[in-house]
Amino acid sequence: MIWTHSAACISVCILLLQSSIVNAVPLNTNRALVKRSSGLHGKFLHITDIHLDPHYVEGADPSSLCHRHGKKRSKEAGKYGALGSDCDSPVPLVKAAFDFLKDKVQDIDFILYTGDTARHDRDDDLPLSNDDILNGHQTVLKYFKSAYNTKHTPYVPTIGNNDGLDHNDVGKHDKIFTKLETIWKPLELNLTKEFTFGGYFAQDVIQDKLSVININSMYFFKKNDDTSDCDEASSAGAAQLKWLENTLDQYASKNEKHQVYLMGHVPPVDDDGSMLYKKACYSKYISLLGKHSDIIAGHFTGHTNNDNLNAIVKDDGEYKIVHAGKHNKVDSKNAVGLFNAPSIIPVHNPAIRVYDYEIDGDKYPVGTILDWKQYYIDLDKANNDGKVKFETEYTASDLFGLDHFDGEGVAKAMNTIAEDKKTRKLYKKYAKVSS
After folding, report:
1. What is the domain partition of the chain in residue ranges?
2. CATH number of 39-431
3. Is it the case that residue 322 has pLDDT exceeding 60?
4. CA dihedral 77, 83, 86, 90 (to 10 degrees)
5. Which residues lie closer than 8 Å to 209 by C-beta, 6 or more apart?
6. b vs e for 159-171, b when ≥16 Cβ sit within 10 Å of the residue's Cβ?
7. Reported confidence tier of residue 208, pLDDT bands at 50, 70, 90
8. Of 391, 185, 174, 159, which is closest to residue 265 (Cα–Cα)?
9. C-beta separation of 259 from 296 below 8 A
10. Which end of the chain, N or C, is less packed with Cβ atoms under 10 Å?
11. Cβ neighbours of 256 (radius 10 Å)
12. Are 94 and 80 in contact (CB under 8 A)?
């Protein structure tokens, strides 16, 4: 009887084990944060470069990074920031931005935050500590969660050059990755072993239709001294490129309608079109994106504080980035649009962007950018009035006379900038957020 009972237990245990294996969820399963197409609004938020500074002092001397008063009270350092200075974002500005989002921007499906949360470490008398950086990440996450239910409106953040524990320098298995994994745990992101190793991950946002590939642009960034260029096989950048290629190939093989967004902090090029990435990383990265232009519906970055539109195109068999400007026409229907959004930090007037995107896939592939609206604060007016008012600076459809911004649409927009003096003048004005 004892043997029979034991045998029965063993049989049951084996069955239970087999069942658990069959029904187990793999550790790298990429669960969609937005599960179904029904109930979507067809809009998402892009916000970048918050640079929250709890030490900002209204009326302080901007030469002290707005941390200390000078001999006279400064009119430049207003309640909501010091426009065009090296000062970071005061708490009232950040709070006002999230109050606006909570009150006026609720009809969105998800949020892309392209990084740079902490203040700059520029003040020798007030050095930025690791605790300051981590507290900044926690505080900004609380702001997002106060404005949105992130269970229903997913929030996808990335790592900026001021988000690590060493400014600009991020290596393999960097300590910031595990710190952020803990802070971001409530977001239920797809943070797999790749994130622990390199700070990058892929996240489905609409089941079987749209995914976000979140790159760690720090591995490509010229100023990162902790990693070498991507032509060295052992470099962190080379490892990320290999992962990115595999990830793009996997999405391309899913089905012909599955589209992806790429997001990161630092764009491949600066405001003037000069390279911000290491030479080999730059070349390999844009070639990889160009080869997958059929599934990439958009590329979203911040860092420069400017509002810029660029495109990856193929020219004489090679991929290159064309910078929007007077003489830069684009002859390509397969361009990859590079959308760089302006920042909260008041280098220029603070700004927030909301995109309209295709959700049905009837006329254009799901994820196709249909329009965007740029909201901004006239900071001088806000400081004078003692209150913030977000206004619409422009909408892309009105500026460019287009109703979609896929590869062909982006090319048309850039050609309009190149050929039409009035549009080009407005584009230059909006690049600096009407400052």
Report:
1. 39-431
2. 3.60.21.10
3. yes
4. 60
5. 37, 257, 258, 259, 361, 366, 367
6. bbbbbbebbbbbb
7. confident
8. 159
9. yes
10. N
11. 10
12. no
- Evaluate whether 338 touches 309 at the Cβ level (below 8 Å): yes
Alpha-carbon span 375 to 391, nearest angstrom: 5
Predicted local confidence at residue 21, as pLDDT: 26
pLDDT digits (tens, 9 = 90+) for 172-207: 999 999 999 999 999 999 999 999 999 999 999 998
Distance of CA 292 to the CA centre of its chain: 20
Structure confidence by residue, pLDDT tens digits, 46-89: 999 999 999 999 999 999 999 999 888 878 999 999 999 999 99
Bridge partners, residue 369, by sequence: 357
Provide the CB-side half-sphere exposure for 428 (13 A, CA). Answer: 10
Residue tagged 């067809």 (tokens): 42
Q: What is the mean pLDDT of residues 389-396?
A: 98
pLDDT for res 291: 96
The label of the residue with tokens 């606006």 reads 100
Whether 192 contacts 181, CB under 8 Å: no
